[in-house]
Amino acid sequence: MVDPEKQRTRYLAGTEGAPPVPPPGGYHGARRAAPAPALPSGAPPALITSTAEAPTDKQPANVIGWVALVAGILFAVILLGTLFTGGTDAIYGVTMLTLQLVVVGIIIAALFSRRGRVLASSALVVTLLFNVATVGAMSALQTSASGSYKGEKTDKQKHEEAYPGIKDTSASEILSQPSLEEVRTTSDAALTEIRRRLSAEFGYTWTEVAKEDLRPERNGYGGESMLVQYISVPWMTNEPIQDYNRKLAVMDVIQDVLYEYGMYDMYSFNDPSSGLDGSVLEKFYGSTDPQTQNTWEWYNDNYPDPLRFYAIIYDLSHDPDGSFQAEREAQNARTGEPLEGLQIYFLAPQLLSEADQAEFEKLMKDYPGY
Questions:
Q1: CA 264 to CA 276: how far, in whole Å?
Q2: What does the domain layout of the chain look like in residue ranges?
């Protein structure tokens, strides 16, 4: 049995596991730490100092950092001010682009400065958020939505844009044609008579599909004229009309009424005799054969007066794949009109209201030769 005490004594006395003995004279460059000098009695203990340098105070940001930050903020304010005043052209102008480059140059210079780097980074963030590209895009969207874009137009272009008439249409021609009120009276009377006769002969009932629609006419110079396009209240039968001979009979009744209002013979867009290509007939009317078409579209007018009449029959019995019914159901969801049946309405372009005639004549005096 090994005596632990002997084993410990053996280890301490021997060289097993002990570090090597230093060479004579000690290691090169080694020195003993000098003992600290004795302190006088009652003196406070000495402070332990470190050979490491004491941390220096953080240096404040230099001037170029502040210049970069202020320049970035001021440029952003200028851009936003231009945005709110609708100056899209000014944002994309040479002046703004030059200012943008100057600000970017200042920020880049500040980034290379150790003391200005933090402020330069903040200025860079501001510039990335508000620059010619981002603010210019917002301004373009704003002017597009509001329609307030003026552009770099000449005084002549702006003058023409306010032209009250229609390009290549004389003021005398506009004033000599029926007014909006006259066209409205004629179309309302004709539609009433058509509905009355078809109801009397075939027992049809009617649904008002939409309200009267007035749309401003463009003047041909980039602006709106004082004239409007008139679309009457469209009416539609609640009953389907699917028999071929019945469709022809309905169109005959309509034709008789339109004769009484000075209009011409009805014209069938969906008939092959219209001259439309067969692919066009199939696309818009379902087939080239009127007996199997899902849509009939007949037309009439009183040229040179502006009144135009449309009679359209929708027939779901000629819908082999169901696509036409899906189309009609979508239309029904939008307007509430019946899925199939006869729809009738008038359209007349370039009408001047009687209430606007005096103002129209006054404004046209500013456009001699137009």
A1: 21
A2: 63-148, 173-356
128-138 residue pLDDT tens: 888 878 877 87
pLDDT single digits (tens) 144-163: 665 555 556 788 889 989 99
DSSP character string of 52-94: SPPPPPPPPP-HHHHHHHHHHHHHHHHHHHHHHTT-HHHHTSH
Residue type, 108: I
Residue 166, strand partner residues: 169
Q: Does domain 173-356 have CATH number 3.30.2030.20?
A: yes
Residue with tokens 């682009």: 97
The two tokens of residue 188 are 């309302």
Structure tokens belonging to residue 225 = 């004229």
CB 263 within 8 A of CB 301: yes
CA distance 156 to 154: 5
pTM value is 0.62
Q: Using the structure block, give the residue that is written with the tokens 């090994």.
A: 2
Q: Rg of the chain over CA atoms, in angstroms?
A: 46
Q: Which structure tokens are listed for 251?
A: 């169109």
pLDDT digits (tens, 9 = 90+) for 37-76: 555 555 555 544 444 444 445 555 578 888 888 888 988 8
Q: Are strands 308-314 and 341-351 parallel, antiparallel or unpaired?
A: antiparallel
Distance CA 107, CA 185 (A): 70
How far is Cα of residue 317 from the mean position of the Cα atoms in its chain?
A: 40
Chain-centroid distance, C-alpha 354: 37
Residues 299 and 264 sit within 8 Å (Cβ to Cβ):
no
Q: Residue 51, Cβ neighbours under 10 Å: how many?
A: 4
